[in-house]
Design goal:
Blueprint: H1 2-33, H2 39-46, H3 50-56, H4 60-84, H5 88-105, H6 107-115, H7 124-143, H8 155-164, H9 171-189, H10 208-217
Organism: Amycolatopsis jiangsuensis
Region (Disordered): 196-218
GO molecular function: DNA-binding transcription factor activity; transcription cis-regulatory region binding
Length: 218
């Protein structure tokens, strides 16, 4: 009987190790390549069989959700906090700064976040929650006279797509460029000019030759 229990414990331990290895491998691949990495590639890098991977995660969405649960929860918590901030402009700025900074660090997280806005059944409720909270924050900031009245909640996707383009910059400059870009945006979005009194982050050291080199590489 003890032998049987030991064997069962061994199987459970192997399954737990496989699950951890799959999640850690997927996280690294998603970070580097985005969430379109095939499940077969993840299985190969995790040194498990494809059947084992699908036993643990029956769908790609299940694996993506597991990998980014902590980050999506953090983003959701920040959105909740921003929506309830007594100063809605402060909450709006913090949310944009966090989201754009996270986007530069992890390509996969950005795609997972954007997937919340995709028309897929498994994301519809979460998407509605995110859209409702962000719209509430935008409305409060506009009613307070801090956010320009023509800003639309859907502009968030435009911001993320534009900021995501900075990933093509040399890695040592991308985060500094993003911070300056977001500061420019917040000055543009400010309705009362308050943001204009804040100095911009330092300009990057990039020259036009960096853009030319990037064009030659593509």
């Amino acid at each position: 009987m003890n032998t049987q229990r030991s064997g069962e414990d061994g199987l459970r331990s192997d399954a737990a190790r496989n699950r951890v290895r799959i999640v850690e491998t997927a996280r690294e691949l998603f970070r580097a390549r985005g969430i379109d990495v095939p499940m077969s590639t993840i299985a190969r890098h995790a040194d498990v069989g494809v059947a084992t991977l699908f036993r643990r995660f029956p769908t790609k969405e299940a694996l993506v959700t597991e990998v980014f649960t902590e980050q999506i929860a953090r983003c959701q918590a920040l959105l909740d906090e921003a929506a309830d901030d007594p100063d809605p402009w402060h909450g709006f700025c913090r949310l944009l700064e966090f989201t754009c900074a996270e986007q530069l660090k992890d390509r996969g997280f950005t795609e997972a976040f954007l997937a919340l806005f995709a028309d897929r059944v498994d994301y519809r409720k979460r998407r509605r929650d995110v859209e409702t909270l962000f719209a509430k924050l935008v409305q409060r900031a506009q009613e307070a006279g801090r956010l320009r009245p023509d800003f639309a909640p859907g502009d968030l996707i435009m911001i993320l797509l534009a900021n995501g383009g900075l990933r093509d910059a040399p890695p040592e400059h991308a985060e500094d460029l993003s911070r300056r870009f977001v500061a420019y945006l917040l000055q543009t979005f400010s309705a009362d000019g308050a943001a204009e009194r804040e100095p911009l982050p330092p300009a990057g050291a990039l020259g036009l030759h960096h853009a030319q080199r990037r064009g030659e590489d593509t």
